[in-house]
Design goal:
Shape: elongated
Number of domains: 1
Distance between the termini: 47 Å
Length: about 150
C-alpha cells in the first residue's frame, strides 16, 4: 500500500462515510449539504485511487463525477426550493474546507504526474470540482442576487 492509497482510504472511509450518514439522517437542510459534499469528497478520493493504482481511467470517472455531482445538487435545490425557503442551509466553512482539500489533492497529483495531458485533465477536473461545488452551495443557501428566486 502506498501513500496515495492510504490517503484515498482515509478520505473515502471517513469523509464520504460521514456525508452518507448526513444524507441518511437529520433535517432536510443538512441532507442536501451532505449530498453536495459527498461528491466533493468522492472525486479527490477517485483521483488518489487513480494515482495509487496507476489507472488513468479512474481520472475519467472523477471528471464525470465532478461535472455531474454539482448538477445533481442544483436539481435538488430547484426541486426543494419551497421546503428550503424557511430554513436555508449554511455550510460555507465546510464548503471552503472541502474545496481546499480538493485543490490540495489536485496540486499534489499535478506535481506527481508532471507536465502532460494527464496534468491538464487533473486541472480541468479540479476546476470543475471546486467551481461546481461552490456554485451549488451558493444555490442551496439562497441563490444569487439579481436572479429570480435568488
Amino acid at each position: 500500500m502506498n501513500g496515495y492509497l492510504l490517503a484515498a482510504t482515509v478520505l473515502l472511509g471517513g469523509g464520504v462515510g460521514a456525508t452518507l450518514w448526513g444524507v441518511a439522517t437529520g433535517p432536510l437542510r443538512r441532507r442536501v449539504v451532505a449530498q453536495n459534499l459527498s461528491t466533493a469528497l468522492a472525486c479527490p478520493g477517485l483521483l488518489l485511487l487513480a494515482q495509487g493504482y496507476d489507472r488513468p481511467a479512474y481520472v475519467d470517472v472523477a471528471l464525470v463525477l465532478a461535472l455531474l455531482g454539482p448538477v445533481g445538487t442544483l436539481v435538488f435545490a430547484r426541486l426543494l426550493t419551497d421546503e428550503l425557503a424557511d430554513d436555508r442551509p449554511r455550510a460555507w466553512g465546510v464548503t471552503w474546507a472541502v474545496a481546499g482539500l480538493g485543490a490540495t489533492v489536485v496540486l499534489v497529483l499535478c506535481a506527481a504526474v508532471g507536465p502532460s495531458r494527464a496534468m491538464v485533465k487533473l486541472l480541468v477536473t479540479g476546476a470543475l470540482l471546486i467551481g461546481g461545488n461552490i456554485v451549488a452551495s451558493r444555490a442551496l443557501s439562497g441563490g444569487f442576487a439579481g436572479v429570480r428566486g435568488g
